Amino acid sequence: MMFVCNDPEPDTDRENLPDIEAWVADNDTRGRRLQGGALASGSAATTVRVRNGELILTDGPFTETKEMIVGFDLLECADLDEAIEVARAHPMAREGRLELRPVLEA
């Protein structure tokens, strides 16, 4: 799973920024991107917690951070090295941050 996050300190080199539509098309064609999409803004979030049996709902994201998850891509890669190469070509590698995590088998 690749979490796509914003970053308050993007790359300052604005030349040759990758095109997201080309990245999606390339990885869809190669069968490496199984699913993906953008998320609504953090202001549309609802945080759910249960404490001592009580449901606690909070509007907006719970985390106190400038970085937020703004999208995701479910990737099918042979190994971490391939996933890193896929992530490296994503526009948000320069504009934000990409977090790669293996999906655990049930």
CATH architecture: 2-Layer Sandwich
CATH topology: Alpha-Beta Plaits
CATH class: Alpha Beta
Strand content: 25-35%
**Class inferred from helices and paired strands:** alpha+beta
Question: Tally the helices: what do you get?
Answer: 3
Question: CA-to-CA gap between the ends?
Answer: 15 Å
Could you list the spans in which at least 5 consecutive residues all have pLDDT below 50?
A: none
Identify the overall geometry: globular
Main sheet specs: 4 strands, antiparallel
Mean pLDDT: 90
Give the full name of the CATH homologous superfamily. Dimeric alpha+beta barrel
Order of helices and strands: EHEEEEHHE
Would you report the number of β strands? Answer: 6
Q: What count of domains describes the coordinates?
A: 1
What share of residues is helical?
A: 10-25%
Based on CA atoms alone, the radius of gyration comes out at 16 Å
Strand order of the largest sheet: 2-5-1-6
What does this structure look like?
The model has no long low-confidence stretch (mean pLDDT 90). A four-stranded antiparallel beta sheet has the order 2-5-1-6. It has a two-stranded antiparallel ribbon with strand order 3-4. It is built from three helices and six strands. It has 106 residues and is an alpha+beta fold. A hairpin with a 2-residue loop joins strand 3 and strand 4. It has a single domain, classed as Alpha-Beta Plaits (2-Layer Sandwich), CATH 3.30.70.
Short overview:
This protein is α+β, with helices and mostly antiparallel strands and 106 residues long.
Annotate the secondary structure layout.
Elements: E1 2-5, H1 20-29, E2 33-38, E3 46-51, E4 54-59, E5 69-75, H2 80-88, H3 92-95, E6 97-100
Antiparallel strand pairs: 1-5, 1-6, 2-5, 3-4
